[in-house]
Amino acid sequence: MKRFTFALASFAGLVGVMLVACNPSQPAPEAAVTEDDYHVTGRCAMAFSAEDQALREAKHNEPGVTMVELSNGYRVFTQQFGESETAKVLVLHGGPACTHEYMLNVAYQLPDHPALANAGGVEVHMYDQLGSFFSDQPEEDLWNIPRWVEEVEEVRKALGMDADNFYLLGNSWGGILAMEYALVHQDKLKGLIVCNMQSSIPEYAAYNKSALRPQMRASLVDSLEAYEEAGDYQNSTYLELVDKEFYRKHVCRLEEWPEEVVVSFGRLNYKLYDLMQGPSEFKVGGRLIDWDITSRLGEIEVPTLMVGATHDTMDPDAMTRQAELVQRGRSLICAEGSHLALWDDEQAFFDGVTAFMADVESGQFEP
Q: What's this model's pTM, rounded to 2 decimal places?
């Protein structure tokens, strides 16, 4: 198995750099602020250095890469690992606007996993959604769920997936997109895997407030909330506290974070992330603030696996309930994992995912 480790770089530090870049200290004239404010305009294109562009071009030329051209003329990055006619997995990363790299453990583990040997193996397609580092960067406001759903549908068609072989696996925001896709196009799906994403942003935010923040000492919570009330999300002290007290406990619990995770978070399109999600995983906001499809989960008929984790930013009990609300659902709770259980509880994660897929492939799936 291909695997890297990387001495833990502070995620808060990485985000801090991006925040500073997006929030200049010297105020601009009001008209200019309105014109340039991506919260208003939705213009979230990343600006690439020559080094960034060279890296993108090199990635585009790697084996297995297909740059899928969408109907709107933009291109998105995909990369194939393994081959299979019966089980093809399209992986949806989170953010929005992280990269596929932090999800690469799926490509390392699934294609030759012994639990799926009788099914003839698995074909995995990694994918950077539009606006992410390795895909095109629109200057226009395209950032809404229906358009993203149709983007996934266009990628599915381009990669030759259908109801006989198509599994959709999404983590975090990718889980939102996977559930939304299933509500529109489930006739194209063989199986749905939703990882570490509740079906309600308000309930996710409430879990943060009622369950996760109280685990911190009261004085720390008071300090964090003071920064938030002031809108001072780029304050270095705030970022360091969120990193130490939240990300390392609830996003990835490994002492050394995999290099794939570090580089992916370092390539986050922060403008697009902030526009949709809000300032951080600790403080929810943005266009998704009222998103809730819990009442519609009963419409999902395809075999579905809801994956949660004991130490996740998402309520693991909610993941279990979601499995009960879809028509043919199963839950998997990774006891030692967090938001990135595919890394910090990988055996439980991949044992559960492959067992689900093996059951679907054999026609023996039961919730």
A: 0.90
How many residues can be counted in the chain? 367
Using DSSP's 3-state secondary structure scheme, residue 240 falls into helix
Which amino acid is residue 344, in one-letter code? D
Query: Torsion angle of alpha carbons 201, 335, 282, 4, nearest 10°?
Result: -120
Residue 21 CA to residue 118 CA, distance in Å, equals 50
CA distance 329 to 194: 11
Name the residue ranges covered by the structural domains of the chain.
11-362
Scanning the structure block, which residue is given the tokens 């395809």? Answer: 302
- Distance between CA atoms of 101 and 105, rounded to whole angstroms? 9
- Residue range 97-131, pLDDT digits in tens: 999 999 999 999 999 999 999 888 999 999 999 99
Domain 11-362 bears CATH identifier 3.30.450.40: no
* SS3 at position 78: strand
Query: Which positions are annotated as active-site residues?
Result: 172, 312, 339
In eight-state DSSP terms, residue 287 is G
3-state class (DSSP) for residue 2: coil
What would the pLDDT profile of 158-213 be if each residue is shown by its tens digit? 999 999 999 999 999 999 999 999 999 999 999 999 999 999 999 999 999 899 98
The amino acid that residue 271 corresponds to is K
Residues pairing with 334 in the sheet: 309
- Burial of residue 262 (CB within 10 Å: 0-12, 13-18, 19+) is buried
